[in-house]
Amino acid sequence: PGAGLGLSIVRSIAEAHGGTVTAEPGPEGGLAVTVTLPVAQVLSGRSGRTGPRGG
Hints:
The chain has 55 residues and is of the alpha+beta class. 20% of the residues lie in helices and 22% in strands. It has a two-stranded antiparallel ribbon.
């Protein structure tokens, strides 16, 4: 077993990026976790990508 920190860490990261996390129990057990993050805005027509393909 773990320390039970996984969802707390996910929530902290999502909130730091302006997002949210929701968790709902499944009908037959388990847990459905949804992480929502905002879409990054494109600045000055650049995608923000770097490297060989991103220019």
